[in-house]
Amino acid sequence: MDDNTANWLRLRHTHGLGNVGVAQLLEALGSVDAILGASAAQLTSYGLSERVSRALHTPKQEAIDRDLAWQADAGLHPRHLIALDNPLYPRSLRALNDPPTLLYVVGDPDLLTLPQLGVVGSRSPSERGRATAQAMTQDLAQRGLTITSGLALGIDGAAHRGALAAGGLTIAVVGTGPDRIYPAQHRELAHDIGARGCIVSEFAVGVGPHSSHFPRRNRIISALSLGVLVVEATLRSGSLITARLALEQGKEVMAIPGSIHSPQSRGCHRLIRDGAKLVEGSDDVLEEIGPYLNGATLLSSPDHSKPPDQSDTEASAPLSEDEQRLLGALDTQPRALDVIATQAQMPAADAASTLLLLELNGLARHYGGGRYALA
Length: 375
Prior knowledge:
By secondary structure, the protein is an alpha/beta fold.
């Protein structure tokens, strides 16, 4: 048993402490060991009540053992418990005022640090909305973005399926414990996401769905993502909560317009009136979040009608080693991503993200079917 993980689980299962309390103690004392080694008097001096201080020194061993047993039983996909001090813990989540004390991850946790687009929308979308979500996420996943959503019915499911259909990457942030699939209709989809992406929860093993869990889930979707795209939403949709959280976190908010007669479009129209980016296609998304993929010097979507001239190249940031390798692997004729990645000796997921940067800098061009060429 990993003592550090067990110690973090003690904090996680201390009733009354919560994410904010853990973050404040960690800032004050520096480590989980220091927190657990602090006296009751020290803990109360940092604002903890005597009841919470006593609870901290009385571990809920049954809950801790249940989480550790879940992690140890690998099942079909790898399982991970990622604490606040783990290098795999995303910086964007650590910046929250209530960062999850622990992340329960099924699948590949390395995906959490990749460039992501949050996609949310109605649980009861129109067929056109569902098709739009799937087609757009399929294209964006082919172009290197990881698609992050909430595994709900409707738009969420379409977004995950679009990424998977492209052979791309997708992350599902759920409002239950990592051992529970909700809704049950998405059991097979969850299996595919665990195999080719990852499922993330801040809720402990055995926790079922509850209405209060989903706003908490939404803040993780928006925090992980460079921006949030709302496909269809009513005026009372939880997707508008995600959009608001994204704005509060300084993220880009985008919305797809629809018919003025459709209730499913009114939430998107309100967002657009309030300043959200009106999105009609994948290029609009890339234009909006492009500057955040490679720092402030990254240009918006390039003009594909002409190659970059010398002044364009000089104005852009120097190419990284990975970008140079991929540029050398590109040809004037479009080639498949896996062929390019093999020649560049890079994993396909890394190659897709780097190709997206090259495309946004006007050095590469994306064609249908996940093929790329020199711009």
